[in-house]
Pirin family protein
Amino acid sequence: MRIVRRSADRGHVDAGWLDSRHTFSFGHYHDPAWMGFGPLRVINEDRVAPGGGFPPHRHANMEILSYVISGALAHRDSTGSSGVLRPGELQWMSAGSGIEHSEYNGSDAEPVHFLQIWIMPDRGDLPPAYAQRAFDPARRQGRWATLASPDGELGSLAIRQQAWLRGVRLGDGERVVHALDPARLYWLHVAQGGAVVDGQALAAGDAIGLTGEGGELQLAGRPGEPADLLLFDLPP
């Protein structure tokens, strides 16, 4: 089965300093038809104004990934971890038994545009943890790169779930495929640009979810719209 989630149909919150689009139910946006996809619980596309940010707040038992599209995202948490995330970098925070953190724009002059992603862990109440890693965009151009995985394979970030996050960048004329296991769930999110997926045109913010499908997923770049795509490979 295949479902399409169009960018324009997502939930929307405009708080002045924050403009956020919610793929799944989150905060004041609630839609029983869109509560998540397997263990993938949140994909929020956030734009935070210069000087803005999320004040300290607490989470527990959630794997939280942040992926910056443009600008700089600053992080601080109760374990003493801190950092600034820029395009091409991925941040992982495992809330574990409980963590307090804040995320805010690392610039007083430029907005930050990023994806906030939540994945439910496969085990709970472990010590909280944090890491971030840079991934050379050139190594994802026209080919898949593993960004997160259960065991940190190929230099990826290790997360507490039997899930993989892979990324690819596609220019005009570039094509990639990905083998599908019908026992797994797949969620493909277009972070930037546009692409054609199995003959279907997708724009930035669009997504496709696949369940019970085998064969191959075929992706192609579109003229004038270099694409940045994220593929979540998830347990049912």
Summary: The chain has a mean pLDDT of 97. The longest strand covers residues 40-48. The two ends are 13 Å apart (CA to CA). The domain at 138-234 is CATH 2.60.120.10 (Jelly Rolls).
